[in-house]
Amino acid sequence: MRGDIFAFIKPRKALTNSNSPRVYRTEGIVLKGYDFGEADRILTLYTPQLGKLRAIAKGVRRTKSRKAGHLDLFTRSNLLVARGRQLDIITQAETIESFAPMRIDLVRLSYAHYVAELVDAFTVEQMANYPVYATTVATLRRISTAEDPALSIRSFEVQLLGLMGYRPQLHRCLSCDTAIEPVSNRFSPKMGGVLCPLCASEDRAAGPISVQALKVLRNLQTNEAAILQLPELPLEVGQEVEARLQEYIEYRLEKGPRSVRFLDQLRTEGARP
Ligand SMILES: [Zn+2]
User: pTM of the full predicted structure?
Assistant: First the structure.
């Protein structure tokens, strides 16, 4: 029975063996946080070499705290962290990039929420994935300045899916392996890519995907830089690309991240001027 009683106390994983230094430096992006106690915040950060980690910022909500402002949501900061028994403790923080322009724009800020939420949802703690860090930083930069941040979000979704091992197959039919022709094909979230018209019955839940939307998805996968230079996509193509990616992400995550619905809400309320 002892095992059952103590099952909920998770031993701390990795990084904590006795050879580890007591203090370490890392940079990181604040993905989310919640207030704890009188003046502390518990943060979830994504870092280049340590992956996702949780740490406590003590006293950060006091106006005199030197860390205040350097640990705001989505800020990229240099951190000095001390190992703690339960949670590591952020002892110093200094902003590298605050992505300031997005902080005064509700739509851009909601995109940042979405990016942070996707990273959090797709990653596990203490498993490094440097490209995920790099693409997250690049995306936050783009959505704070790009004329059409939506395309940067689509690009981020495609890159992140690929980096997590869910790169959709967009060139050959997932069932018969023939090259996909420029006709109306099907997109199957369950199978992870495209089915040719002859194999549509392999997944009856797979919806149609247009030639244009498929082309955009392929370009986002292989030719990201070029497509991000487009001023914007035709509205209906953009909406279709978004819908197919959303189905795939939701299938992968089983339930949609909260800010997907938040973005929907923004759109339906016509928040964009
Ligand atoms: Zn086929």
Answer: 0.86
